[in-house]
Structures are given as structure tokens and as C-alpha cells.
Amino acid sequence: MPGETAVNFSLLHRTCKLVVLLCFLHISVTVVFYVRSLDLRFAFVQNQQSHNNRSTGLPPSTPEHKDVKDVKPVEISPEPKPPEVKAAADLQQCPETSPLLVGPLRVEFNMPVSLEKVKKDNPQVEMGGRFRPSDCVALQKVALIIPFRKRDEHLKYWLYYLHPILQRQQLDYGVYVINQDGDEIFNRAKLLNVGYAEALKEYDYGCFIFSDVDLIPMDDRNTYRCFSQPRHLSVSMDKFGFRLPYNQYFGGVSSMSQEQFLKINGFPNNYWGWGGEDDDIYNRLSSKGMSISRATGEVGKCRMIRHNRDKQNEPNPQRFDRIAHTRQTMMKDGINSLSYKVVRKEKLDLYTMITVDVGKP
Ligand code: BGC
Predict the structure, then answer these.
(1) Between helices 277-287 and 188-202, what is the axis angle to 10°?
(2) Residue 353 a catalytic site member
(3) I need a surface site. Which of 16, 50, 58, 295 has the fewest CB within 10 A?
(4) How far apart are CA 265 and CA 284, in angstroms?
(5) Contacts of 91 (CB under 8 A, 6+ apart)
(6) What is the mean pLDDT of residues 291-318?
């Protein structure tokens, strides 16, 4: 019927118009959203870039980020530079967990490392091995104390790996290498006492890390700071198959607040040669009712640089007898009876080296 055909045709015509209109609307909305998302993405990249530059203060490639070097930087127009140093009063406390941590790290010792490169890679580390975050107030002031003699190669690796880690951990820290002068038998614990005393002459440190020169953490979440209990930091060493050799083990790397250290009268001064002094320290802590805090086995992994036993650091045959009497001797032998002579103090680019005469047995 002609009338009916005309009605059908006009209905079809209107439906088509509606479909075209809807398509147009759809395309317009899509285009608007697409353009907006481009804007957002651009702003995000810009933000990330400026945040990284401002808050890490780290060089573009740290040891752990070798592969990042090859990624082409995104071309963006430079932001106006923030003022170099904020007034201390403007700074907020750093967060409990640093946002700069990256987790597991590759640690190897088969490439040559030069102090010049370490210095170039860590431009924010100041003379004497001092650093503090520029964009927040560190939660702790930490002195890192390394007992030392003739281990320059190991020290290079330690500085190479640890400076970037400690900066990412947002610590206010200083590195003190306590070098035993002469060729007498080595005394690790006495050197640690000296490090404690000498570091305090320079700054009001509240936390002390006692670290062997050949131990490198494999995860930057293992924070080199102090805790409510003395901390054992070298929890799972490759040398021991990534496990604790025994539960009371407190060797390698540990941390103590000033209060914890003083409570046990510091460390023994009369362990000459290898072994036992760390067990004595453990005995001191447990006799004062303290327990050992540790990271998990995964976070506490660390690597030791393989080496032969040092000359003049033979196993101490008296160690078993001494460990058996810690409780009787500890309040007479320790930081309160420490005596030594500073032979030389050098403020170097990446650490402070203090050479000391600690005497002989
Ligand atoms: C020694 C410690 C040493 C540990 C692991 C113990 O027998 O007394 O000083 O750290 O073995 O080697």
C-alpha cells in the first residue's frame, strides 16, 4: 500500500539519521578521551622524571642499575629547577620505609672498580664519606665502622656497593675505616670500640653499624639502621650456604644504638686474632636481657668476597675460655677500659680513615 510504504520509508530514514548521529557522538567522545589521556601520560612522565631527579639525588646509573643506562631518556621540556637546598625547617622527616628501595641486587666481584668511578657515581657523598638526604630529615644518624688492615681491594667493592644503597635507605651517615697500624696481631673488636669513640667525636651519631669490609648486602631492604633490639644484618651469607651457622651467631655485620652499646659496656678489647669476639658480644647482649633482631633470610642475604686468611690474624686459641667468662669480665673490659693512640686521621672522598695503634696482647 502506498501510504504504508511512505510511513516505513520515513521511519527508516529517521532511524538512519539517529544511527549516524550516534556514530558521530561516539567518535567525538572517543577523540576527546584520547586527547585527554595523552595529556595525562605526558604529565605523569614529567612528574616521575622530576621526582626521581629531586629525591634520589643519585647518579643516573647506580651499580644496581647498569641496564637502565641503555634506555633512551624521554624528551621533555625542562621544569624550572627547585631551590638546591631547602631550609632545614621546611624539611619533613623521611618516611619509615624509603620509597627509593629497589629490593634484590646483583652483587659480583669480578669487575675492576676504581675509587674515581665510585666518587663520580656518588656525587652527593661528601668528604669523609658523609651523606644526608637533601629532601627529608633522616630518621637516624648512622656511623658505619669497618675494622681494617691491608684490604684495599675489598674496601673498593664495599664503597662501590654500599654508598648507593645507604643513600637509597635515606640515612644520615658517615663511613669510618679503622685501620690497625703496624703488623701486630689483629684485634677486630677493639677496632670497633675505637670506631665508636672516634665517630662520636665528629657527630652525634645515635646508631652504629659494625661491618666487616668483605660483606655486601644483596637486598637494599635490609636497612643499615638500628632497631629496638640489637640487629644482626648479615643473616644469610653465601659462605654459609645462605643460612645462619648457629642461632647465636652475631658476626659479620651488626647494628646497635648508643644505648644498647653502652648497656653492654661496648666490646671486649682482649680478643687478639681470629674468632670469638662476636660470640662474646652475643653473650654480653643476652646477659643484659636483650635479644637479636634480624631481617628474613631472603632480605638478609649477603655475599662475602672470597680471600685467604690474613697474616697476623690466626685463630685465637684463648677464645673458648674467654667466651666462657664473658659475664664476669664484661663490665671491666670494654668501652670503659679502652685505650689507643690515633696515628693518623684522613678525610678522603668516600670515607674517613683513622689509623690507630691498639697495642699488642
Ligand atoms: C667463631 C666466631 C665466628 C664463627 C663463624 C665461631 O666458631 O667463634 O668468631 O664468627 O665461628 O665463622
Answers:
(1) 60
(2) no
(3) 16
(4) 8
(5) 135, 136, 137
(6) 94
Nearest one of 252, 276, 280, 248 to 266, comparing CA atoms: 280
CB neighbour list of residue 113: distance below 8 Å, 6 or more residues apart: 156, 157, 160
Ligand 1 interacting residues, C-beta cut-off 6 A? 245, 251, 275-276, 278-279, 319
Mean pLDDT of 133-141: 98
Instruction: Copy the grid coordinates of residue 292.
Output: 637479636
For 109-139, what is the HEC assignment? Answer: CCCCCCHHHHHHHCCCCECCCEECCCCCECC
202 tagged catalytic: no
Q: Is 90 known to be catalytic?
A: no
Looking up cell 659496656 gives 265
- CA-based nearest residue to 199, from 331, 353, 359: 353
This prediction has a pTM of 0.78
- What the block records as the C-alpha cell of 299 is 632480605
Question: How far is Cα 359 from Cα 266, in angstroms, rounded to an integer?
Answer: 18
Cα 300 to ligand 1 centroid, rounded to whole Å: 18
Task: List the residue whose alpha carbon is closest to atom 9 of ligand 1.
Answer: 275
What is the CB neighbour count within 10 angstroms for residue 140? 19
Residues 6 or more apart whose CB falls under 8 angstroms from that of 318 comprise 276
Q: What is the mean pLDDT of residues 265-293?
A: 98
183 is catalytic: no
How far apart CA 37 and CA 78 sit, in angstroms, is: 21
Assign residue 87 a region (left: φ > 0; alpha: ψ between -120 and 50; beta: otherwise): beta
For residue 27, the number of C-alpha atoms closer than 13 Å in the C-beta half-sphere is 5
Buried b (16+ CB within 10 A) or exposed e, 316-344: beebeebbeebeebbeebbbeebebeeee
| CA of 251, closest atom in ligand 1 | 10
- Over residues 21-74, the pLDDT tens digits come to 775 676 765 655 554 544 333 333 333 333 333 333 333 333 333 332 333 333
Output the CA 319–ligand 1 centroid distance in Å.
Answer: 10
